[in-house]
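Design job #97: recover the sequence.
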């Protein structure tokens, strides 16, 4: 097949031109780049939940492999008819097409095909083409509109508009990471940062280069998730180049700016406002920024206790949702009080030792030597005669689906991925052997539920730190 567009019905191409203003030539180049990313297509609404994607389709596009046709399940026929109906089209027959003659392969490498006027077409390809037109092609594409809104908000110092461009769960990241500030101060912090970092005047003209979106491959997406880890999982990423003309005190200026869009839980967001907030709060830790007084009783308009884990002050005592978690916390701090390496080891799943060996080349016994050295050194820094740990639970936050997916990307390789993660905030007090206060701080522990069993993931983190910092003690009984 010479081109993707040749595999699309002419009536469908007319639909795209009428609705999105996207012509054949523009669509062909963009669609080729789009599918090369390994894009899995979902046109998911209450009525349509696409069962088959096409992340593998491009690699087979020009092959001579034999295709096999299978009967399409009734529920998928209904979904395909619904999709075609939005395009003003009807199908004469439907089939699931694969490269395997076994019916068991229908839900794996498969795509949905429809017969229209004696010719067969791929429904998945039509869905991908429309989604592409919606997000990045044409004058009113989502990315074009949001890119313009972002740059205009920056030049206008419109922090309210910028706040409206980020997903609600992002505020939880700011609250957890920058405890020196509260939500009533974020706008002032961002406004000061924008003024110093951008220094743009008023935009008088704005254009976007629709021919130059750069879609990330799977490796680049993984790297981007690691670089901008805001507790979110970016399923797909694309860079979008914008050109603009603006007028400031020094006259007219032309320039370009690249923004990055990410897909989170099926929705597209421009990631730049999140990066701006993060950099702004980080800089504010070290810069002299004039801020309003902190108000613990007030939250930002788009920032609710339910979305962010709520108030982490010491005024409220919160019960843990599972008694097992309470026992795990008691055992965790008891192990530190007793300098018990065995106690810490009992808190980690067996699969963790495989992960530790992969990272540091240590067996369990070698790592336990490092942990023993770590515990002794930690107590010596407090009180040689011993310390006690006291804690009060102040808040409990269950991670969102996006946050769970982000963590599991890291842990699933070692079969340590969890069904759910819960973050438990505590007020922690460390006392010396005479009962005097050595340390009081707000902290948190992360719990994960693996195959129905709760674990404190901090115990694994402690082992990773001990293995790195006390490697010379590997295998030692001390």
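Job complete. Output follows.
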């Amino acid at each position: 097949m010479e081109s993707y567009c040749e595999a699309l019905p002419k009536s469908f191409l007319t639909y795209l031109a009428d609705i999105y203003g996207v012509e054949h030539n523009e669509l062909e180049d963009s669609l080729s780049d789009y599918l090369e990313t390994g894009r899995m297509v979902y046109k998911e609404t209450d009525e349509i939940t696409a069962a088959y994607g096409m992340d593998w389709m491009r690699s087979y596009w020009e092959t001579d492999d034999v295709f096999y046709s299978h009967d399409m399940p009734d529920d998928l026929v209904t979904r395909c008819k619904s999709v075609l109906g939005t395009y003003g089209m009807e199908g004469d027959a439907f089939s699931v097409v694969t490269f395997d003659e076994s019916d068991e392969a229908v839900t794996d490498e498969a795509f949905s095909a429809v017969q229209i006027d004696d010719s067969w077409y791929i429904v998945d390809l039509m869905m991908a083409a429309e989604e592409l037109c919606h997000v990045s092609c044409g004058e009113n594409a989502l990315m074009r509109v949001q890119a313009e809104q972002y740059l205009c908000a920056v030049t206008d110092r419109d922090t309210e508009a910028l706040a409206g461009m980020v997903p609600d769960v992002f505020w939880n990241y700011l609250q957890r990471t920058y405890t020196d500030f509260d939500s009533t101060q974020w706008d002032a912090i961002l406004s000061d940062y924008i003024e110093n970092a951008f220094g743009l005047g008023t935009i008088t003209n704005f254009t976007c280069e629709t021919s130059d979106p750069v879609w990330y491959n799977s490796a680049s997406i993984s790297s981007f998730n690691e670089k901008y880890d805001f507790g979110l999982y970016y399923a797909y990423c694309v860079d979008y180049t914008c050109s603009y003309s603006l007028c400031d005190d020094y006259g007219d200026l032309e320039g370009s700016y690249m923004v990055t869009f990410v897909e989170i839980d099926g929705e597209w967001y421009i990631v730049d406002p999140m990066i701006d907030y993060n950099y702004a709060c980080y800089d504010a830790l070290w810069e002299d920024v004039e801020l309003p007084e902190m108000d613990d009783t007030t939250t930002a308009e788009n920032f609710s206790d339910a979305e962010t884990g709520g108030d982490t002050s010491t005024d409220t005592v919160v019960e843990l949702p599972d008694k097992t978690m309470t026992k795990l916390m008691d055992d965790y701090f008891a192990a530190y009080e007793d300098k018990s390496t065995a106690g810490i080891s009992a808190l980690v799943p067996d699969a963790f030792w495989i992960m530790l060996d992969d990272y540091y080349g240590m067996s369990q016994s070698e790592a336990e030597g490092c942990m023993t050295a770590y515990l002794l050194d930690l107590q010596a820094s407090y009180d040689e005669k011993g310390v006690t740990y006291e804690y009060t639970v102040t808040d409990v936050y269950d991670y969102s689906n996006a946050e769970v997916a982000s963590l599991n990307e890291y842990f699933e390789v070692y079969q340590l991925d969890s069904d759910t993660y819960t973050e438990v905030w505590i007020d922690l007090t460390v006392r010396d052997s005479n009962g005097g206060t050595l340390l009081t701080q707000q902290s948190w522990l992360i719990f994960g539920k693996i195959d129905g069993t709760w674990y404190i993931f901090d115990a694994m983190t402690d082992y990773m730190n001990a293995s790195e910092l006390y490697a010379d003690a590997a295998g030692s009984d001390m």
